[in-house]
Amino acid sequence: MLYINLLYLQPLTFLKHNIMAYKISDDCTACGTCIDECPVGAISEGDIYVIDPDLCTDCGACAEVCPVEAIHPE
Ligand code: SF4
Ligand code: SF4
Prior knowledge:
Elements: H1 2-19, E1 22-24, E2 43-44, E3 50-51, H2 61-65, E4 71-73
Antiparallel strand pairs: 1-4, 2-3
This protein binds iron/sulfur cluster (2 copies).
One iron/sulfur cluster binds at residues 22, 37-38, 40, 42-43, 51, 56-62.
């Protein structure tokens, strides 16, 4: 039964990662405005900022505050 459930859940997990996540483009200026807007802590710092697709819930809050419009749905 567990094996059957895994067969059904794997395609759903694949879809979540490809549809329900936002992504930060190379246009990011690393200003840091978006990081405090994420309710699930999915954004992390770097040369450009990065969104963890496993945590992102597709709420769009980060995209609304980005001054250079670098955040878009995947
Ligand atoms: S879309 Fe929402 S959950 Fe996803 S990274 Fe942006 S603020 Fe976080
Ligand atoms: S708000 Fe936009 S430019 Fe600023 S760190 Fe986030 S993605 Fe980069």
